[in-house]
Write a sequence for this structure.
């Protein structure tokens, strides 16, 4: 059930102008029963002006009368058919002016650490536009050199539960289009943190892992044997006329 606007001021008015029980008022306004009792005692909401729910179209007079005669009856908020679904508006959320300058940093953080998130998900999380997200993805943003990635939860732009839900949804969608082999390669966060860092080659020779300037140890050993197997042949000079002539002399 929806809650009335200005709940505490509405509770003040109901305490002062009706004979409803504390529990009925607490259930209607979403407050604790002891808090409503504190309003009646003057310990809570001192100086708060009552907000008339009847004059502001939140309650029908007949609803209050019914609840006063029946302590078990729960007040029902007046329903506006035209307002149904308004609380689930689509599009980016509103971001206070004081935090709008932090949005590029949070977008860069999301793009860097959660590339599986779509532009639409990022837009809803931090309240930005898709062109801004695209500019940061492609590093064409006018201030990209000065932007440092910062967690949007730390900046107060979204809740951790909202971020986790968006990441889980994106991961599930990505897993649906993966092949069986790619799915088998997926590991949990705990497993990935326990893995040893994979050694990386310098970027200057990256891609040349399969090439070698020298042969394998076995090939090198065979080459040595071939080179020195017939070492005596270096000293066996071929016979020729010169040798015969020298002998005659």
């Amino acid at each position: 059930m929806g809650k009335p606007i200005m709940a505490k001021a509405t509770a003040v008015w109901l305490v002062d102008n009706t004979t409803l029980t504390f529990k009925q008022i607490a259930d209607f306004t979403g407050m604790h029963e002891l808090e409503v009792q504190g309003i009646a005692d003057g310990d809570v909401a001192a100086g708060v002006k009552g907000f008339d729910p009847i004059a502001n179209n939140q309650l029908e007079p007949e609803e209050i009368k019914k609840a006063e005669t029946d302590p078990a009856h729960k007040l029902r908020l007046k329903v506006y058919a035209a307002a149904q679904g308004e609380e689930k508006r689509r599009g980016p959320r509103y971001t206070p002016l004081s935090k709008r300058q932090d949005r590029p940093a949070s977008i860069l953080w999301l793009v860097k650490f959660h590339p599986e998130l779509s532009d639409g998900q990022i837009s809803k999380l931090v309240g930005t536009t898709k062109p801004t997200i695209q500019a940061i993805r492609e590093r064409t943003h006018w201030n990209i050199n000065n932007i440092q990635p910062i967690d949007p939860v730390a900046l107060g732009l979204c809740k951790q539960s909202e971020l986790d839900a968006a990441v889980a949804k994106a991961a599930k969608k990505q897993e649906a289009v993966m092949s069986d082999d790619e799915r088998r390669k997926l590991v949990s966060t705990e497993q990935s943190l326990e893995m040893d860092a994979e050694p990386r080659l310098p970027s200057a020779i990256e891609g040349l892992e399969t090439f070698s300037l020298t042969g394998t140890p076995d090939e090198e050993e065979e080459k040595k044997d071939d080179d020195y197997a017939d070492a005596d042949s270096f000293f066996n000079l071929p016979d020729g006329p010169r040798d015969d002539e020298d002998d005659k002399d």
The first helix runs from residue 7 to 17.
